[in-house]
Amino acid sequence: MQLLASLTSPYARRLRILIAELGLDIPVVPTAPMDNPAALLTANPLGKVPALVLGEGTAIVDSPVIAAWLLARSPTQTLMPTTGTAHWHARTTEALTDGILDAAIILRFNTGQGVTSGVWTDRQYAAIDRTLAALPARIGASPYEDICIVIACEYLDLRFAAIDWRTTQPALAALQSRLTDTPALIATRPPQ
Ligand SMILES: N[C@@H](CCC(=O)N[C@@H](CS)C(=O)NCC(=O)O)C(=O)O
């Protein structure tokens, strides 16, 4: 079994943290999606990381699906509630923080193509701002949700230093500072 992942991917980072926190032994194979390596395209025709290769011709793709698979393999885990309202709350926090990453990545690719303004750009920034404002109410709901929130915030630090989420959302800053020395977070911080 292998996790194909780029070391800067925030989606993959969440899984690398889960793997560490759950004590699973799944090697990470550094994979640059934009190079279209054959192993990635075989595992995931979308050409995106992360992808979890289970073995002979079987792979799981999309980080929330892979996260669910990892958590299901660890029946005694306490990172994410597995049933009821708390479970769907956690899945929604996961989706909201993924949405921040999706919007940030759209902005990043647009910038790379010289598109730095316009309705679509404004829409991504507005989605990021609104979602950041919604996250403080979700802090502390479960360890997994806190991890998802910190990963999204730290990805903004990496790629969008101008988004000053620490000033606009001090509760998120307090969470990030409380978790900053978590070994799995330290071990998975992207190379600067
Ligand atoms: N929804 C996917 C998003 C994955 C994603 O966008 N990964 C980026 C790297 S951070 C990628 O592989 N991009 C290459 C591409 O879009 O072609 C997930 O959660 O796994």
Automatic annotation (TrEMBL):
Pfam families: GST_N_2. One of its GO terms (cellular component) is cytoplasm. InterPro entries: Glutathione-S-Trfase_C_sf, Glutathione_S-Trfase_N, GST_Omega/HSP26, Thioredoxin-like_sf. This is Glutathione S-transferase. Residues 1-78 form the GST N-terminal domain. It comes from the Bacteria.
